[in-house]
Design brief:
about 150 residues; mainly alpha; about 0% strand; flat
Length: about 150
C-alpha cells in the first residue's frame, strides 16, 4: 500500500483499485479481440468473393480464347473474300489441314495407348504375383510342412 500525494488521485492503492484496473484492461482486451474477430470474418468473406471472381475470370478467359479463335477464322474468310481467293484453293487448304490434323490425332492416340499399356501390364503382373503369394501363404497355413 503506497501513499502518494499527487492531488486528486487515490491516496492508497488497495485491492479494489487493482481489480478496477484489471477489469478495464480486460475490457480493452475483449474489445480488441472482438475487433480482430470481425476483421478475420471480413477477410474470410473477401477471400470467398475473390475465389468466386477468380473462377469467373478463368471461365471468361476460356470464353475469350474461344471467341478469339472464331474471330481469327472470320478474319481469314474476310481476307480470302477481299483478295478474291479461288474457292478450289480454299477447299484444297481445308483438305490439307484436315489430313494433317488427322495424322497428328492418330499420333497422339498412339502415344497415349503406348504409355497406358505398360502401366496396365505392370498392374496385372503385380496382381498375379500377389495372388500367387496369397495362395501359397494360404496353403502353407492350412497344411504346414511336416
Amino acid at each position: 500500500m503506497a501513499a502518494e500525494g499527487r492531488g486528486p488521485q487515490r491516496q492508497i492503492k488497495d485491492k479494489t483499485y487493482y481489480l478496477g484496473v484489471l477489469r478495464s484492461k480486460t475490457n480493452e482486451l475483449t474489445t480488441e479481440i472482438n475487433k480482430l474477430q470481425e476483421e478475420v470474418e471480413m477477410y474470410k468473406q473477401e477471400k470467398s468473393v475473390y475465389l468466386s471472381y477468380e473462377k469467373r475470370a478463368e471461365t471468361l478467359a476460356g470464353e475469350i480464347k474461344n471467341l478469339q479463335g472464331q474471330l481469327a477464322d472470320y478474319n481469314m474468310v474476310v481476307d480470302m473474300l477481299n483478295t478474291s481467293t479461288d474457292m478450289a484453293e480454299v477447299i484444297r487448304d481445308y483438305n490439307m489441314l484436315k489430313v494433317q490434323n488427322d495424322r497428328e490425332a492418330q499420333s497422339i492416340d498412339k502415344i497415349f495407348t503406348e504409355r497406358q499399356t505398360p502401366l496396365h501390364n505392370e498392374n496385372i503382373n503385380d496382381y498375379a504375383n500377389f495372388t500367387c503369394y496369397f495362395v501359397h501363404v494360404k496353403q502353407y497355413t492350412l497344411s504346414p510342412p511336416t
